[in-house]
């Protein structure tokens, strides 16, 4: 699964990497948690890429209440086309959720040990995501929300956890984002385990367990079991 991640790349690097016309300068975040606003890229009117902040926890169009989103922070790649909560978004509303790395917790004798995982070359990451627009009866503006797609873990990190966010290769971004692209089989093929050799991981402090904690200290390498 993916329940916590970090995004701290400067705006200019993100704008260049994801071919955006505009990108705001965001404060670095090292402990992004469910139900918070998260940075994403999607296709706007006219077929151009746009940056958007989306509520993390997808709220389907047919939902009666917003709270359902807290149970939909992740969507399994294997069931996107069949699950009522995700199948419409899988067809028409796909996005890239922007990150620099994510955390997974490894079961260890002294309790679960958090690890930070990122691209070995330090590039920003594109998680495969789905987004929806839900009309809240109690609000004037609709809620735009998203979920992060998960898949089987790459071989190099299976010792940490058996699932991971689906990382999209750059050559697949255009097709994933294109709402007119409807080849479900090809889209599903994009969501397999990422290349193991492209990833690096290291243990970090258990300070990341509490969403209130933030800052670059959370991704500093630490001896397994240390920190509180």
Question: How would you portray this structure in words?
Answer:
Helix content is about 10%, strand content about 30%. The protein contains 4 helices and 12 strands. The chain has one domain (about 5-220): SOS response associated peptidase-like (hypothetical protein yedk fold, Alpha-Beta Complex). It is mainly beta and about 230 residues long. β3 (about 35-45) and β4 (about 50-55) form a beta hairpin. The longest helix has 7 residues, at about 10-15. The model has no long low-confidence stretch (mean pLDDT about 95). The strands form 2 sheets. Strands 2-1-7-8-12 form a 5-stranded antiparallel β-sheet, with no helix packed on it. A 5-stranded mixed β-barrel has the order 3-4-10-9-6. The protein is globular and about 50 Å long. The protein has helices at about 10-15, 85-90, 175, 185-190; strands at about 5, 30, 35-45, 50-55, 75, 95-100, 100-105, 115-120, 125-135, 145-150, 165, 200-205.
